[in-house]
Amino acid sequence: MSIVGIGEDGADGLSPVARGLVASAEIVFGGKRHLQLAGALIRGAARPWPSPFERGIEEVLAARGRAVCVLASGDPFFYGVGTVLMRHVDPQETVTVPAPSAFSLAAARLGWALPDATLLSLHARALDLIRPHLQPGARVLALTSDGDGPAALARLLAATGFGGSKLTVLEALGGPRERLRTTTAENFTLGTVDALNTLAIEVVAATNARVLARAAGLSDHLFEHDGQITKREIRAATLSSLGPRRGELLWDIGAGSGSIAIEWMLADPSLRAVAVEARADRAARIRRNAAAFGVPGIDVIEATAPGALEGLATPDAIFIGGGASGPGVLDAAITALRPGGRLVVNAVTLATEAALITRHAALGGELIRISIARADAVGTKTGWRPAMPVTQWAWVKP
To answer: Is residue 136 within 8 Å of residue 162, measured between CB atoms?
Structure first.
């Protein structure tokens, strides 16, 4: 099996090796555009990708052992079909000839250093994913789904305080239809945009821009909440105790506003989270917060623990911020946690604190009390106003 990357310059842009792989293939798979671009070389059967796409992968796998060539856009392993195929095929069975990716072509046109830019695919994905990357002075290259993508991103930037950001729309890169146009997010009036486009963003943040800090413990006012939120200082300490590591799954039980699950997800793109919340209004609020923070992939379960936990994927870490004193909740969490996983429970009521003291005595772990006081007006002067202390039990399952 061969995988050949092809650009908008078509067969003319392919190397002799790539041309030979296409010409000698008994079956050539690819998108309709790819098959048209390579049409002059194809001598075997041309198979456009079916819908759903997964059926096409099945057809490729069914043809293993025959001379098969799969056409892909640019670099097949940069948000391309190559990555999907390698989930099913040993790399030793394939020969891959990549072409320049859209990111490489965009960087070449703009004179950008790729290692210094953020590279995102928003193709068939939520535009909200760009939000954590909107940092002052940042450079972002984003693949979009269609010709409406750049305008939609411009509206998102303008609505969140990044309207002054410089946008360059790079269309049909590498081919005869290539075009580059530049504007700002707040003045986006470019009209029709080719469906095959990459958007380059040079981020400019206004003083009121929604910039998400890189550290744990984001400001409470950034979250929509009804008071049921782990406050900023406590949240930072809680995330430190949870210790997110690449690829891990968190259960946030009694999620409230979803602040812990959201900041867990922000720590690394590979992280996953399930937010369990019994109240419908709070569950809806968690979904809105997740989108606003650029982590729409949080799985929100609208149900009551411990019943809500049945059938969920095994967690690497669990946080219980509400309902820990409920019948069976702590037991269910301890049972579900994988060996070596971390459990962190915060308590503000005496009943929950008593339960944590009992668990600590029986199982060990770390028991701490966190007290925060804020300067506030006391008559005409300023004094310390203490918040409710939080007792935290952190435990690692043997």
So the answer is: no
Q: What is the dihedral of CA 76, 78, 80, 83, to 10 degrees?
A: 80
> CB atoms < 10 A from the CB of 125, how many?
16
Share the mean pLDDT of the chain: 96
* Burial call 147-169: b when 16+ CB within 10 Å, e when fewer: bebbbebbebbbebbbbbbebbb
Q: What is the pLDDT of residues 109-157, one digit of tens each?
A: 999 999 999 999 999 999 999 999 999 999 999 999 999 999 999 999 9
pLDDT tens digits, 6-59: 999 999 999 999 999 999 999 999 999 999 999 999 999 999 999 999 999 999
pLDDT at 205: 98
In the structure, what pLDDT confidence band is assigned to residue 70 with cuts at 50, 70 and 90?
very high
Instruction: Please answer whether residues 244 and 385 qualify as being in contact, where contact means their C-beta atoms are separated by less than 8 angstroms.
Output: no
Amino acid identity, position 340: G
Strand partners, 198: 143, 170
192: pLDDT confidence band, cut at 50, 70 and 90? very high
Banded pLDDT at 333 (limits 50, 70, 90) = very high
326, 332, 333, 337 alpha-carbon torsion, rounded to 10°: 180
Given a contact cutoff of 8 angstroms between Cβ atoms, the answer to whether 141 and 106 are in contact is yes
Whole-angstrom Cα distance, residue 5 to residue 225?
48
